[in-house]
Amino acid sequence: MTEAALSPNHKWMVLSNTTLGMLTAVVNASIVLISLPAIFRGIHLDPLDPGNTNTLLWTIMGYMVVTSVLVVTFGRLADMYGRAKVYNLGFLIFTLASVALSLMPANGIAAAYLVWLRIVQGVGGAMITSTATAILVDAFPPRQRGLALGINTMAAIGGQFIGLLLGGLFADINWRLIFWINVPLGLIGTIWGFYSLKDTNAPKKH
Questions:
Q1: Which residues are CB-contacts of 117 (< 8 A; sequence separation ≥ 6)?
Q2: What proportions of the chain, in percent to the nearest 5, are helix, strand and coil?
Q3: Short-list 66, 100, 62, CA closest to 182
Q4: Measured between alpha carbons, how far is residue 197 from residues 3, 6, 74, 96 in Å?
Q5: What is the pLDDT of residues 96-141, one digit of tens each?
Q6: What's the burial of 141, exposed, middle or buried (CB within 10 Å: 0-12/13-18/19+)?
Q7: Are the C-beta atoms of 3 and 139 separated by less than 8 Å?
Q8: Separation between Cα atoms, residue 144 and residue 15, nearest integer Å
């Protein structure tokens, strides 16, 4: 039995949760781009100092590189151990990393703290993006999969622009808001996912 057979409304719950997951993951990828000067000022780093080049590059690229590289790996693990399990764990990891970034100290360890937690966020983002599509395919019948996947894709595309807009807005208010914005979205997605998304197909361990 597939998730689509569980209840008439279950597939729409799956769509709303996975769309929130894709939107959150993509917004987080782009929100930092435009707000880096504010973040560096907040942790007392000069982005033009050659000694801070690695921090600058890894803050920008770390999340996206990790997300891109691990998508295939987590997709395979999801097939083996359960797509909903990997997705929900990814949302939890992403949310915990967001909380930690929001509380980032503005002292000498801030540079390493920022880079490594962005990488951890990327791990959570990879777990979300690698499983969202497969979960949708399981939940929706063939005649409605195009609609579901289209909405999910629109959220991913729109998230890139929303992230840039929010980054520019929050950078002028308080640089910590750039990371705090992920916390309520992550908490909602994590709790909602653990409550509503369950694996109904047997994992494939071969």
A1: 97, 100, 101, 104
A2: 80, 0, 20
A3: 100
A4: 9, 11, 17, 20
A5: 999 999 998 877 788 889 999 999 999 999 999 999 988 988 888 8
A6: exposed
A7: yes
A8: 11
- Helix, coil or strand: residue 173: coil
Residue 171, Ramachandran bin (φ over 0: left; ψ between -120 and 50: alpha; else beta): alpha
Contact 120/179 with Cβ under 8 angstroms?
no
Q: How confident is the model at residue 206 (pLDDT cuts 50, 70, 90)?
A: low
Locate tokens 């590189």: which residue? 65
**Six-digit token string for 175:** 């640089």
- Which tokens go with 74? 């987590």
- Please give the pLDDT value at position 1: 41
Copy the structure tokens of residue 100. Answer: 């930690």
In contact, 84 and 135? CB cutoff 8 Å? yes
Residue 126 and residue 29 in contact, taking contact as beta carbons nearer than 8 Å: no
